[in-house]
């Protein structure tokens, strides 16, 4: 089904924007509404980004837009500002828009991104009074509440495709008065299984709707959506210099390591504060999330878990608190991001590295072994995962110093999206990837995961992809002799984290998060200050934690390192000797004891003196 083009559809050919044109020095050149300009000023935005420079002028003219722009490039403002401006103009006296109608629909693949877009709209319309109303129906609220919100005819609706299709079928959401349609992260929409939903929405759209397709990569899925919604559009593709200018420098490193040595390196990195600032650790599945969290807990290293099993309210709160610097470490999975990107992407005869314009692989998973499917089925019985969850795409994590790939992603495309969480807004960042060489795969069964089998081939593809973008992955060298001194502590901690402990931790945290998410939701709405005391990084306490494991003894550190650790760790290091002199057992021998202490006793003689 293809939507008919209206009279307002322009141009018979695609138009591409080149970065060679002069960029405006300020937002004033766009002639936006004064209230929007004040909101931009409060955000301290001085000059528009390349995607905003290219997209906003044609968007204000009513042209359809197809833009390739990564997260953090300013693409949300690039489509929101023209839409908000045109809605405000339409509501001016004399323009004939007296009735409330829904004129804007923004479709996003995940609930996290929907919440983020809603908050951005709230910021830009802060000075507009009640002239622009927006609702987010992707939130975890009942259908009856969603229906009441939609019947109020808000100006803009933010939704996932599935929710929008449901409300369109029940006639709660009217698409006939729609003037603006946004499909954000368009390359993910179809891969999340929303093809039928998009067909339903396309069938209900009126002629002449202005469409915005925003995507980090221009894939076959995006081309399919383009044919469905806007066959003739203004196309923006940033050149290499523009893309590099949108963010800071990402210093990329990799470490060749064994399966159990991964845990040793992670312990050393975070306990000795080798990486300062906030970090996101990516792992392959939910079990690994909790295994890693329980492992770090034993050393007094706190971390949050972010995955598709958690309630959506908890996930949103974790991201929000992380951006407020409440937490420093998030352990996350991105299992939903790689739907359709199976492990055979590392085949030797496929030499085309993904540069952002094409998918890494075919979307066929029929060749996967049945064992993998059985594993997935078994895990899914614990709790149904949220298919509208996403973390490595779209979500705006702020001030991330390091992205640590504890488990290497299965595709170079997924790697590119993961490392995009750091080096945002002109700041520099670091990406550190741990990969398992083929000869070390399966050598430590308790910590072995299937996805690491092809790490070497995936790493070569990543190097090739990043090389085409002008980036280089460098080896990260540790002094392994010093690191090995910590192994006995790592082994003890790792042995304590059993499969049963991991399962118990998952169940315990789910119960805690569900309670906080559902039962206390209304209380937190009425008492927002109490929400600050809700933490997601508390110890789960399903594994016995030895107190001495949280301290780093001085004998494990090289000369001078102990003093440096105490000075630079902000009090993280607690030495064994708290105060006073340390007295050895030999010096205390025979002192402070009773006169008969130390003499051997005959148990038969003492037995005879017992009163009967």
UniProtKB/TrEMBL annotation:
Residues 1-25, 341-385, 583-612 are annotated as: Disordered. Residues 1-17 have a biased composition (Basic and acidic residues). Residues 371-384, 583-598 have a biased composition (Basic residues). Residues 500-527 form a coiled coil. It holds the Pfam family DEAD. A motif (Q motif) lies at residues 25-53. Residues 341-365 have a biased composition (Acidic residues). This is RNA helicase. It comes from Dactylellina haptotyla (strain CBS 200.50) (Nematode-trapping fungus).
């Amino acid at each position: 089904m293809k939507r008919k083009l209206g009279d307002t559809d322009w141009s018979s050919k695609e138009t591409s924007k080149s970065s060679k044109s002069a960029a405006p020095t300020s937002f004033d050149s766009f002639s936006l509404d004064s209230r929007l300009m004040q909101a931009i000023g409060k955000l301290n935005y001085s000059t528009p980004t390349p995607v905003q420079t290219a997209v906003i002028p044609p968007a204000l003219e009513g042209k359809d837009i197809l833009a390739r722009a990564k997260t953090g490039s300013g693409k949300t403002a690039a489509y929101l500002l023209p839409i908000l401006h045109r809605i405000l103009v339409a509501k001016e006296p004399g323009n004939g828009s007296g009735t409330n109608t829904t004129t804007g629909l923004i479709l996003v693949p995940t609930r996290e991104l929907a919440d983020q877009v809603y908050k951005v709209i709230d910021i830009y319309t802060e000075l507009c009074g009640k002239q622009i109303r927006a609702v987010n129906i992707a939130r975890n609220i009942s259908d009856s509440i969603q229906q009441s919100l939609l019947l109020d005819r808000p100006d803009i609706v933010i939704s996932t495709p599935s929710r929008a299709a449901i409300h369109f079928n029940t006639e709660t959401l009217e698409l006939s008065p729609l003037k603006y349609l946004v499909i954000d992260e368009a390359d993910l929409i179809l891969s999340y299984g929303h093809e039928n939903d998009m067909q339903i929405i396309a069938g209900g759209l009126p002629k002449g709707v202005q469409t915005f397709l925003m995507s980090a990569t221009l894939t076959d899925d995006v081309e399919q959506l383009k044919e469905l919604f806007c066959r003739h559009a203004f196309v923006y593709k940033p050149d290499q210099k523009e893309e590099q200018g949108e963010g800071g420098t990402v210093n990329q490193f990799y470490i060749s390591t064994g399966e159990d040595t991964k845990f040793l390196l992670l312990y050393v990195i975070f306990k000795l504060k080798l990486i300062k600032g906030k970090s996101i650790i990516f792992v392959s599945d939910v079990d690994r999330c909790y295994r890693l969290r329980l492992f770090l807990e034993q050393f007094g290293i706190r971390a949050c878990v972010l995955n598709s099993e958690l309630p959506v309210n908890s996930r949103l709160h974790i991201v929000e608190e992380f951006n407020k610097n409440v937490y420093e470490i998030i352990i996350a999975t991105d299992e939903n991001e790689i739907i359709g990107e199976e492990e055979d992407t590392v085949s030797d005869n496929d030499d085309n590295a993904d540069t952002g314009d094409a998918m890494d692989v075919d979307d066929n998973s029929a060749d996967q072994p049945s064992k993998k499917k059985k594993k997935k089925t078994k895990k899914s019985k614990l709790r149904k995962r949220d298919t509208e969850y996403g973390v490595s795409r779209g979500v705006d994590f702020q001030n991330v110093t390091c992205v640590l790939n504890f488990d290497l992603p299965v595709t170079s495309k997924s790697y590119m999206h993961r490392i995009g969480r750091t080096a945002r807004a002109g700041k520099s960042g670091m990406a550190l990837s741990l990969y398992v060489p083929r000869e070390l795969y399966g050598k430590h069964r308790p910590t072995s995961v299937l996805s690491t089998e092809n790490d070497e081939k995936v790493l070569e593809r990543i190097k090739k992809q990043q090389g085409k973008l002008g980036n280089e992955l460098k080896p990260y060298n540790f002094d392994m002799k010093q690191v090995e001194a910590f192994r006995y502590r790592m082994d003890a901690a790792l042995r304590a984290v059993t499969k049963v402990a991991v399962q118990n931790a998952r169940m315990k945290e789910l119960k805690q998060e569900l309670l906080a998410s559902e039962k206390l939701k209304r209380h937190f709405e009425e008492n927002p200050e109490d929400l600050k005391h809700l933490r997601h990084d508390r110890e789960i306490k399903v594994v016995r934690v030895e107190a001495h494991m949280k301290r780093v003894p001085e004998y494990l550190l090289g000369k001078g390192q102990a003093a440096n650790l105490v000075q630079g760790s902000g009090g993280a290091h607690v030495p064994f000797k708290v105060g006073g002199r340390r007295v050895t057992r030999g010096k205390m021998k025979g002192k402070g004891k009773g006169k008969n202490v130390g003499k051997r006793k005959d148990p038969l003689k003492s037995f005879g003196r017992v009163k009967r």
